[in-house]
Each structure stands twice: as structure tokens, then as C-alpha cells.
Amino acid sequence: NIRYAWLDLQFPAAEIFEPNAGNNGGLKQAMRGYVFRNNRNHYSPCYFVDNRGWNSENARGFLFVGNHLEGGTRFVIGAIREALVSGNISYHRTADWKYFECTTVEDLVITGNTFHQFKDADYPDIPDTAEFISVIGYTRNLIITNNSFSGIGKSLCRLGSYGGASIQNGGIIIRNNTYSRCFSSGASLVELQSGNWANIQIIESLIA
Fold this sequence. Notes:
The protein has no helices and 18 strands. The model has no long low-confidence stretch (mean pLDDT 88). It is globular. Strands 1, 2, 4, 5, 7, 9, 11, 12, 14, 15, 17 and 18 form a twelve-stranded parallel sheet that branches. A six-stranded parallel sheet has the order 3-6-8-10-13-16, with no helix packed on it. It is mostly beta strands and 208 residues long.
């Protein structure tokens, strides 16, 4: 259903999957290499990827580069691992959905993008975006740098919502981004819900 996801990443059932003889064709290694480059998504309220299947945490190698997003386009629901998001432009966004709604994150780089909520005095009812990214499990090595954000109404990141105190998280870098009309709800830049956290670096300039 293209109105829900470009790629519905459901894996073959374990009992019918037949790995090849090499070291790159098993359940842990074969699910890799998903490229979304130079697309225009015009007012389809979909995710690029729905990755919530039973083998979702073994999917890796996601590339989102040079895409144009309008309306309510979103990137990922589910797990994301070893991914680059760069050079994308969201310039006519009219929905309040999150860009990333993740179960787990590992090795995700988001850099050099423009994420702008549509704003026009003739259309005063257009809402701000909610959180930019939320993660309900672990977050390991998340880098958000050199992006332009506008109209993020809640936190930029809400991490570890249901992970529990035993979940190990870290390697968070957020720096050199610009913000316009963001955090109108009084939310913080980063909201850590639960879990153990280490190696967090935030270097930003926020103007009240």
C-alpha cells in the first residue's frame, strides 16, 4: 500500500527461509541494502520503510539521499540500523507526524537536510510537527548534524520511552543544526525517558 509505506519490510518466515552457503546470505546478513535516492513524494502520507517484522533488527544499510518530501512523508517506522539520511528537503509539510518513529536505532547519521513545516498566514491551522524522532527501545550511535529545522513543536529527540533502566544507550551527537519556530510546546531539545546513557554530546545555539 503506497499510501502507508514504499517498502513493507516483512521477512520470510524462519521455517521457510533458505540461506545460501556463504557468510552473507543468512538471516542476520542477507537483509541489507535499501536505497531511496532522488525521489519526490507528493502528498502521500507514507513512510519510506515499515520495518517492524520479526527479523527487523537485522535489516541494515539504509540510504535516503536527495529526496523531496511534501505533505506528511515520513522516513521509518520500526528498527533502523547502519543508515544515512542526507540531502533531503521537506519543504511543504502539513502534517504533525514524526519523521522517524523507531523501535530501535543503531548507527544512524542524519546530516545536511532541510526539515521545514509549511507556514502561511492564509492557512493558520497547519500544525507543528511533533517530535522529529522517537525511539522506544535502545539508541546507539545517533548523529544529527548540520540540518535546518523549522516547526518542530515538541522535542527534537524522545529516546528510550519504554526501554527500561537496564537498556544501554549512548553515542548521541547533536550539533551545528539551526532551528526556527521550534519547541513551541516548551519541550526540551532531547528528552531521555529511561535507560542508561553514556557519551552524549550536544553543541547547539538556541535563540529564545
